[in-house]
Amino acid sequence: MSESLRIIYAASEVEGFSKSGGLADVARALPLHLKQLGHDVRIVTPFYRSIPDSHVTKTVIPSLGVPLGGEEIWCAVRESEMSGTVEGETVSVPVYFIEHEHYFFRRGYYDDGMLEYPDNAARFGFFSKSILQLCRALNWIPDIFHANDWHTALLPYYLNQAQEEASEFPESGSVLTIHNSGYQGNAPGTFRNSLEIPPEYFVPELFEDHGELNLLKGGISFADQVNTVSQGYAEELTTPLGSHGLHEIYTDKGYDFSGILNGCDYEDWNPETDPNLPGRFSSKDLAGKKVCKQKLQQTFGLPETSTVPVIGMVSRLTWQKGFEYLIPALPDILRLNVQLIVLGSGELWIANSFDQLKDQFPQKLGWKNGHDNYLAHLIEAGSDLYLMPSLYEPCGLNQMYSLRYGTLPIVRKVGGLKDTVINYDESNQNGNGFIIDDPNEEAVINAVELAVNTFYKKPRNFSKMIDRAMKQRFTWKAAAEKYVVLYQKTLN
Ligand code: ADP
Ligand code: GLC
User: Fold this and answer.
1) Residue with the nearest Cα to atom 10 of ligand 2?
2) Measured in Å, how far apart are the chain's first and last C-alpha atoms?
3) What ligand 1 atom has the least distance to the C-alpha of 344?
4) Among 19, 23, 25, which residue has the most ligand 1 atoms within 8 Å of its CB, making it the best to mutate?
5) At CA 365, angle to CA 360 and CA 370, rounded to 5?
6) pLDDT digits over 94-122, tens only?
7) Pick from 316, 338, 333, 355: which is nearest to 444 by CA?
8) How far apart are CA 421 and CA 439, in angstroms?
9) 117: buried, middle or exposed (CB in 10 Å: 19+, 13-18, 0-12)?
10) In this structure, what is the dihedral angle of CA atoms 3, 6, 10, 15, given to the nearest 10 degrees?
């Protein structure tokens, strides 16, 4: 094992405490695996109002003053423990919560359900700065500050700022992981003073972006190492088309920018042991999958038939996930002999479209607007196919869950999806899923038709694909080892 490192892992959401998407899954799995590799890793996250009371947290610092923008902002720090099983062993990691009633006791994490909070830059800038102050108060000096996405992108900057002054952190390195470059933390330039960003840093090479502040952009420049969550997305981010406007910033990082594919948490997502399922199954015995399919159809009020393929979707309802071209294609897809089951929450226009489609195809579409972990597991297990037509996808976790559950993914050829799903190839019997070549109606209809025809007309091929899919592994252990190499690079 390499030398044990002290790592602060900063994330705006952590599975078990707060979750809107895959960042939360990663913020749980990666720290647990780093701990299992022998590192002293501690998570820091906001204390949101929605954190369930079942999580016992203890106030460890009743009042912590965080100097920011010429003011002292006061918060409290709570602590809890996050446990999980890694390779058969129970592993625990401390979690620190930054408690600030005005900033974090709100309806949502980032928005009120419709609009983003206008003070998000102040909220998460404060959160990022508080992390340094927490380490000082604990007298615990990390080797690595690991930030994630725009919410904590200011952490590398504040570390750099502290290092310029005589600081407690002379040797510490910073890593910024990009889970989604489409969200950059844009804010009016008026936030500059309160975030301590001086005029000489409000330039296009650092924080300035079309006259506004761009927190992610500045964070990328200040971080020692930057990575994203797949090799495919890393390549896309260096191109004008795939970078959401930041390709020059990524390209400038050179060898300090890389891709590390996320893992899949096979403790949580294992069809042989999943406590959410009415029937368990393995690649050797798929009987339990049929039980799950029937339960799924029953739950969504669809005809309970095993002979019709069920296509599942579990998704944030947002532009990124390809709904703009999927929704117009759905009437044609639903006219095929299929059932479609969708679970999602997010933008209203997408939810409304599914409401209308449900009226039109009541016997073929099952749809629920909401966030539901139990149903997410049931959909992954009980469906035959899984649809993920994303416009871009930094990594994507649901296609990995689908593969493990023998639910063949139909995905766009982008980012982490193209790194994990191999297209069906009838001639050489290869593949574990189906690829949508382009982001348009025709391409998604073609890919779904091919998948459905393979289900009906080539059941042997379909079964072999299921077998290959279920045996595929993307382990967190492999990913965690790559992160350790990245951490070591920052210290050289
Ligand atoms: P993203 O982070 O872009 O949303 P990922 O595929 O990486 O996409 O991860 C999404 C995660 O959020 C998965 O764990 C998925 O099961 C979960 N998820 C998304 N929407 C819902 C929902 N409505 N209910 C339950 N889980 C959901
Ligand atoms: C983001 C991305 C998703 C990725 C997840 C975890 O939300 O959209 O592709 O899997 O983060 O890294």
Assistant:
1) 396
2) 18
3) 23
4) 25
5) 110
6) 999 999 999 999 999 999 988 999 999 99
7) 333
8) 17
9) middle
10) 70
Q: What is the DSSP letter of 334?
A: H
398 lines ligand 1 (CB under 6 A): yes
DSSP state of 363: T
Is the minimum distance from the CB of 296 to ligand 1 under 6 angstroms? no
Distance CA 97, CA 93 (A): 13
Q: What is the pLDDT of residue 2?
A: 59
Question: Which CATH superfamily includes the segment(s) 6-263+476-491?
Answer: Glycogen Phosphorylase B; (3.40.50.2000)
How far is it, in rounded angstroms, from Cα 489 to Cα 173? 9
In CATH terms, the fold of domain 287-470 is: Rossmann fold (3.40.50)
Phi, psi of 372 (to 5 degrees): -150, 105
How many beta carbons lie within 10 A of that of residue 234, not counting itself? 24
Q: Which of 294, 270, 291 is nearest to 282 (CA)?
A: 270
For the chain, the maximum distance between any two Cα atoms, rounded to a whole number of angstroms, is 70
CB of residue 433 inside a 6 A radius of ligand 2: no
15-43 pLDDT per residue, tens: 999 999 999 999 999 999 999 999 999 99
Closest to 421 measured CA to CA, from 261, 241, 234: 261
Sheet holding 186-187, edge to edge: 186-187, 212-214, 208-209
What residue spans in the chain does CATH classification 3.40.50.2000 cover? 6-263+476-491, 287-470
Low-confidence ranges of the chain (pLDDT < 50): 1
Selection from 127, 140, 147, 162 nearest residue 225 by Cα? 147
